[in-house]
Design brief:
Nucleotidyltransferase, domain 5; about 35% helix; about 300 residues; 2 domains; 9 helices; alpha/beta
Length: about 300
């Protein structure tokens, strides 16, 4: 049996998938704690957990896997063998050559986690088979990725897709990357407490209050979605996608998100020949990264 593994290394959990390349079927799926900050024999705990899991699965399969894809936060090195830049979390990941660490004969390829999520959604999810797609993941912060004419955009340093750090207001306060008035600060969970003058700490609380008829909550929510619509039309005019996928915690709002967002887009979007963009909710949820990593390892 020829097999492949996809792994999504998150800040709190590791998600892993195994895939039978002959039957094109998933054969294993599991989650492990990341244990960020813990070390064993000078190696990060998460790295050891991944290595042990792969060895366990290869023992079960009775042979080595053909490819391993790993999704991780951070900027991927140009050779896709490691993460080149990841400050603040996952100590030990910068410069870790996974192929050497795992001591495997399998092909190993690394991808940024948002890039991997988009690869997963275009392979098995809501944008299956599409070649011009943008993904926005909106949770605590705002991440993203783009595929243009079938090619994943990585950029010079791997920064492509960091759409949370585009500027919507050049006179706004700088965000964590120094961008003034960023999309992330306009709609991310990280700023709800500031945007609501301390009334809400999570976007879900804000949305619940909006649905209960709280006028102040509705004003804040709709202003946030107006900012999101402005960002989306800017991305549409820059990259000309056929689909924009929304993922992350905000996607749970469903119609409460999509209905007003479509209304704002009706006002803002440039629609040559009346062609409007499709806005879709991500399908693969928390498994998008592992699915995309699996695919990335197989095809790169």
């Amino acid at each position: 049996m020829r097999s492949a593994i996809g792994i999504d290394l998150g800040g709190t959990r590791i998600k892993a998938l195994a895939y039978n390349l002959d039957t094109e079927e998933e054969i294993k799926r599991t989650m492990l704690p990341t244990e960020d900050g813990q070390f064993f024999d000078e190696d990060p705990a998460w790295a050891n957990s991944i290595r042990e899991l792969i060895l366990e699965w290869e023992t079960h399969f009775g042979q080595s896997v053909d490819s391993i894809g790993i999704a991780s936060p951070g900027l991927t090195a140009k050779d896709q063998r490691s993460i080149a830049f990841m400050p603040g979390r996952l100590a030990g990941i910068e410069g870790l050559i996974w192929e050497d660490f795992l001591k495997t004969s399998a092909k190993v390829r690394i991808a940024n986690d948002a890039h991997a999520a988009l690869l997963g959604e275009t392979w098995k999810g809501t944008a299956k088979g599409s070649e011009n797609v943008i993904l926005l993941t909106i949770g605590t912060g705002v991440g993203g990725a783009a595929i243009s004419d079938g090619h994943l955009l990585r950029g010079h340093l791997g920064r492509a897709g960091h759409f949370g750090h585009i500027s919507l207001n050049p006179w706004g306060n700088p965000d964590i990357c120094g961008t003034p008035g960023s999309l992330e600060d306009a709609i991310g969970d990280c700023t709800v407490i500031n945007r609501s003058n301390g009334r809400f700490t999570r976007t879900k609380e804000l949305v619940d209050a909006h649905l209960a008829g709280d006028k102040e909550a509705s004003d804040i929510w709709l202003r946030s979605l107006q900012s999101l619509a402005a960002a989306i039309v800017s991305l549409i005019n820059s990259l000309d996608p056929e689909i924009v996928i929304l993922g992350g915690g905000i996607a749970n709002a469903r119609e409460t998100l999509l209905d007003p967002l479509h209304s704002f887009l009706d006002e803002m979007e440039w629609r040559p020949n009346s062609k409007r963009i499709e806005i879709r909710i991500a399908e693969l949820g928390e498994w998008a990264g592992a699915t995309g990593a699996l695919h990335h390892g197989m095809i790169s």
